[in-house]
Amino acid sequence: RSELGVKRTLDEFGIPRSTFYKWYNNYLKAGYEGLKPTKRLTNRQWNSIPEDQKNLVVALALEHTELSARELAYKITDEQGIYISESSVYRILKQRGLIAAPNHILIAASNEFKDKTQFVHQMWQTDFTYFKIIGWGWYYLSTILDDYSRYIIHWELCDSMKADDVKRTVDAAIAKARLKTKRKPKLLSDNGPCYVSNDLKKYLKEDLGMKQVHGKPMHPQTQGKIERYHRTMKNVVKLNHFYHPEELIDALSDFVNHYNNNRYHESLENLTPADVYHGRSDKILEKRNEIKNSTIQKRRQLYNQQKLINL
């Protein structure tokens, strides 16, 4: 204990009184531990992600292994009410060893038709793809996809690829879509025999009032959306063997439900096809912006609280 007064002692050592009383208050609060240097907060740390939120990212990534970092980021915002950027989700997963570089990169067909659609039911895409069922032979999946939203309106497993199969699929799609206007969607397809048949052309034009559009021969990127959908779907569904058509139908139903309602598309502002198809886009995007602002505000408040503790 110095015989000199506090003021004179501080003057002798060149220590500001504000610094001394800060040390003194820290000592009263935490003893000698309170006098140890604290790690200074940098300007970047105010937006750091809390550890519990990092753990949430990892837990959801392990639960939903089919989701990319981008899809996971928006799932967290929509379902957990927390904003974590795509880059932050990617960084967290990479630090935990949950991100692997792809072995190869596929050059995909173009996503867009040359004239982009502006609204739902402006144009539909349709195509067939095939599956082999053990003991039953080949079956063919006919699909109707809304070009604007990527929503799968209707699909049907057929035992052939004939014009009648296309008619049946289109009829079912029209019934499900509950179109309220007389103007029907254009129907975009490739130049397969069933799609260029006079029977189908006459039916679409005269009975349904639908205009038919064909992609250029040897130019599959015209139908990039449905081509990509079928490729993605088959990569998942064909992981299993099927011994009865009903087994395949169940698997296809599960995938379509997931694709329509849970698959986030970057080209759709990271919304699902169902969000766009059913007109929920604006409301969801507005809610996301509110969550983002709220999350950032909470992080800033936490940062300021930590600064006060370290004073």
Would you kindly provide a brief summary of this structure?
This is Transposase InsO and inactivated derivatives. 49% of the residues lie in helices and 11% in strands. With 311 residues, it is an alpha/beta fold.
Give an overview in words.
By secondary structure, the chain is of the alpha/beta class. The chain has 2 domains: 45-104 and 280-303, no CATH class; 123-276, 2-Layer Sandwich (Nucleotidyltransferase, domain 5), CATH 3.30.420.10. Helix content is 49%, strand content 11%. It contains 12 helices and 5 strands. It has helices at residues 6-13, 17-30, 51-63, 69-80, 86-95, 163-177, 193-196, 198-208, 224-237, 245-262, 273-277, 281-309; strands at residues 123-133, 137-146, 152-158, 186-189, 212-214. The protein has a 5-stranded mixed β-sheet, sandwiched between helices. The radius of gyration is 30 Å and the shape is elongated.
Strand arrangement in the largest pleated sheet? 3-2-1-4-5
Shape: elongated
Q: H/E element string?
A: HHHHHEEEHEHHEHHHH
Mean pLDDT across every amino acid position: 85
Q: Tell me the radius of gyration.
A: 30 Å
In CATH, the homologous superfamily of the largest domain goes by the name Ribonuclease H-like superfamily/Ribonuclease H
CATH topology of the largest domain: Nucleotidyltransferase, domain 5
What fraction strand? 5-15%
Distance between termini? 25 Å
How is the biggest beta sheet arranged?
Answer: 5 strands, mixed
Structural class: alpha/beta
- What low-confidence regions span 5 or more consecutive residues with pLDDT below 50? 102-111
Q: Briefly, what CATH class of the largest domain?
A: Alpha Beta
What would you say the CATH architecture of the largest domain is? 2-Layer Sandwich
Q: How many domains is the backbone divided into?
A: 2
